[in-house]
Amino acid sequence: MKRMMIVMLLGVFMVLSACSKETNAPAANAGGEAPADNGTAAESAAAAGGEAKKPRVAFVYLGVPGDGGWTYEHDQGRLMMEKELGITATTVENVPEGADAERIFEELSQDHDVVFGTSFGYMDAMVNVAQKHPDVKFMHASGYKTLDNLGTYLGKEYQSAYLVGMAAGKMTENNHLGYVGAFPIPEVIYTINAFALGAQSVNPDAHVSVVWSNTWFDPTTERQAATSLLDKGVDVLAAYQDSPASIQAAAERGVWGIGNDSDMSKYAPDTYITNPVWKWGPYYIEAVQSVIDGTWKPESYFGSMKDGITDIAPFGKNVPQDVQDLVEAKKQEILNDAFDVFAGPIKDQTGAEKVAAGSAMTVDEILNMTWFVQGIDGTIPQ
């Protein structure tokens, strides 16, 4: 993900006209209401021969699939689910986190059985609407609030971030890495920490400078933040946003770049290393199938790399083979449950021990992380 966040506010008419053309779902009408029929009426009826009823499914996106990152991967997962289960879902794009979001969820709940919200900032809106519609199943990406009809889902992207950090630690020549953080929330903080720990595991002298863009998708602002780090002399630059602006800025300086969410190699082919990627399709298939089977429960799903929900993108064409082999060996350890990213000893920026040797952070501790590990230069705004 992905998100307690701020998005460019769009006019109501833009939000409501954003139903994805890829799904062949009808656009919202001029009155601003979600479509009353998403083209699945026949699918929703019980099929001949007693087959299970197929639910009417909707996805609410913070951005557009064309972002090449977070929303793109959610949409790829939606497409996989549609193909596997024979369901055509409704999508609503460019939905800001706020009053508009709650209205969209309310309208979708009128004629859908399952609604996915793909941004952290939708959490309270989804809770409010779910309480009013107990017969609708809601699933919220990266949130932490659940109800009898509201579950959450996310993955251990920090496992991917550690591997990417290893590659960065091997590729740097001056030991100065940069990271453009999105928002100072635990999801981003623990990912940056994992990146730093990965880099330090192969290069103890590596340190990471962090700046915040306070955006998820704002190429102009993200490029400015990236430039501020490039001006400080970082020779590997990573970012936690949905746009490729940071790695494009790095490429212009001949600096190695690391993207986020989806394979971003095409944006900086000569200087690209790799980046964490999401694979939502298997989860969406399983979740919707459980609704069809009548086995759905409001779980707090936190999948791992072993589950296939997160991975790393293919390495860039100029990444040495020995670096690739090193990272691949550690990946196999993670897949075999032989390595824990947040196993001690781990110290924070001040040198205070946070995780003792022989112990490891719990999932709850990871999901509530509000501190940086030793070797990171930067502050976490309160």
TrEMBL record:
PROSITE patterns: PROKAR_LIPOPROTEIN (PS51257). The keyword 4Fe-4S does not apply. Residues 1-20 form the signal peptide. GO terms for cellular component: plasma membrane. Keywords: Signal. InterPro entries: ABC-Purine-Binding, Peripla_BP_I, PnrA-like. The keyword Signal applies. Residues 55-336 form the ABC transporter substrate-binding protein PnrA-like domain. Residues 27-47 are annotated as: Disordered. It comes from the Bacteria. This is Basic membrane protein A. The lineage of its organism: Bacteria, Bacillati, Bacillota, Bacilli, Bacillales.
